[in-house]
Write a structure and sequence with these properties.
about 280 residues, alpha+beta, YojJ-like (1, 2 domains, seven-stranded mixed β-sheet, disordered C terminus
Length: about 280
């Protein structure tokens, strides 16, 4: 017992500030990594991998050679399979990391302009819901959606409720697809979105809802969906779908989301400006 306590005391004495920092950084990385896969298919896979890692040394100690061989080979092949099977989750994680604090982003900062834009979107969505006209509206945030924009027709027009309603009129050229909004501009319509691979989604939900969830899984975009069958308004954010929004609830949620993005944008830009000033000073010296 005394030897154990002596070892512990010596270990604590030898811990440096860099060691503590190293532990904290690794712990934070693991925490963020788990938060990205929480409540996804990858979470169950991670549990299975951990169980296999625990069983490998146990099978070796107990001299269960066949089991040990199978577990080792399965783990080796399984890690390669993970990259292929869980490509959407990996892509989502990498894109989340890639939203650098130094990226030049432009989200509506003027409160009055933001309120006007949100009101126009909400009015259009509620009118479309009342007439049971299907709609798919994407509000771009930090993650740029260039590849999605290229799949549709470029409009670059002011956000107005009349224009949004006209876009989704049945049998018009641009109604069957998503409309992308950046700041107070409608950038493109008739855009094709990636479908989600999540099999736990309600089977009653159609392609429009699957496309909205799919885009929200790989970006930070806010996706508004109006059901053609029921007129129900839904939101897809970060791979999760919430339903049954009314006019006031939708307006409050959109304003909160965009205000939050605006605060992040101010921090990001100020951080970027500080770095640029520092670089310029270094060059002058």
């Amino acid at each position: 017992m005394q030897e154990i306590s002596t070892i512990l005391i010596n270990t604590i004495k030898n811990i440096s500030i860099s060691s503590i920092l190293d532990i904290l950084v690794v712990a934070y990385i693991f925490y963020k990594g788990y938060s990205l896969i929480k409540e996804t298919r990858a979470e169950q896979l991670l549990k299975g991998i951990i169980l296999m890692i625990i069983l490998i040394p146990i099978s070796y100690i107990l001299k269960l050679e066949v089991l040990n061989f199978i577990l080792n080979k399965t783990l080796t092949i399984g890690l390669l399979s993970v990259v292929i099977i869980f490509q959407p989750e990996i892509r989502r994680a990498l894109e989340h990391i890639g939203r650098s604090a130094f990226e030049e982003i432009h989200i509506i900062q003027d409160a009055e302009k933001r309120n006007i834009t949100v009101n126009e979107i909400v009015n259009a969505v509620c009118n479309l819901a009342e007439s049971k006209t299907g709609a798919l509206i994407v509000i771009e945030q930090v993650t740029r959606l260039g590849d999605v924009l290229n799949s549709g027709t470029i409009l670059d027009a002011n956000v107005t409720s009349n224009l949004l309603e006209n876009i989704f009129v049945v049998n018009t050229p641009l109604h069957d697809g998503a409309t992308i909004i950046r700041n107070d501009r409608i950038l493109a319509s008739g855009c094709v979105l990636p479908l989600t691979n999540n099999n736990n989604i309600n089977k009653k939900l159609g392609t429009r809802h699957r496309a909205g969830i799919g885009l929200s899984e790989i970006s930070d975009a806010i996706v508004i969906i109006v059901s053609e069958e029921t007129g129900v308004i839904s939101l897809a954010i970060n791979g999760r779908l919430t339903r049954n929004y009314n006019k006031e609830k939708l307006r409050i949620v959109l304003l909160k989301m965009l205000q939050h993005s605006d605060k992040k944008n101010v921090k990001f830009k100020s951080a970027g400006e500080k770095v640029k000033v520092w670089i310029k000073r270094k060059k002058i010296r």
